[in-house]
Amino acid sequence: MDELVEERIENQFYLIDKPLTWTSFDVVKKLKNLGRFKKIGHAGTLDPLATGLLIICVGKHTKKIDYFQSLPKTYTGTLVLGKTTPSIDLETDFNGEFPVDHIDTSLIQHIIATKLSGDIKQVPPIYSAIKLDGKRLYTHARQGVQEEELNIKIRDASIYRFDINTANFPEIDFEIECSKGTYIRSIVRDLGELLQSGAYLKKLVRTKIGEYDVKNAQSVESFNKEIYASLS
């Protein structure tokens, strides 16, 4: 790779729209192979069943990963009240069903305003990539270890905005703006429990990281074409 091409494609960051079912590492691995990059990393994990903005840093820009990770994030999605799954999304089968007749929009808004706004504490989902005892939490979960058997540390998070649309109740469309390290599935789980019911995440899209918008992101296929043209 000559110096001109290296500067044009290697020492950069890229906005990628992560495909459904791909892990963030899948994207990094694919782009590394496509661009033959020596150094590459992403600035903030997305779950396999989430889509949306993933910032990929290459070459000298890997030094900026911490900066990108520190930026606020915005997500849109759909949660469903009345049912739960162990993973809090559709990766696993339903394991509980709960009443929703006592829930209305005003109650949901009250819970959000009093319990799920501003600075909060949350327990990360057991199906997450955090390491515990040398293993990812999802590895413990898939081996049948129960959440109460693990010492998952409580984490700080900040919710700057949590808007909802209950027109399709018990499905609730939402938009959340939050700090780094916030687990949307934990918010969904906690909302269900605070409503004396249950909830799971049906859909999630990360739309923004700071000023960077998924509208300006490219697909992996588009990136492939761009890199191919640069290297030709």
Q: Estimate the global geometry from the Cα principal axes.
A: globular
Bin the helical content.
Answer: 25-40%
- CATH 2nd-level architecture of the largest domain: 2-Layer Sandwich
CATH class of the largest domain, please? Alpha Beta
Strand content is 25-35%
Order of secondary-structure elements: HEHEEHEEEHEEEHEEHEEH
Q: What is the number of beta strands?
A: 13
Tally the helices: what do you get?
A: 7
Instruction: Report the span from N to C terminus.
Output: 11 Å
Q: Specify the CATH homologous superfamily of the largest domain.
A: Pseudouridine synthase
The average pLDDT score comes to: 90
Low-confidence stretches: 1-5
Rg for CA atoms: 19 Å
Instruction: Kindly identify the CATH topology of the largest domain.
Output: Pseudouridine synthase
Structural class: alpha+beta
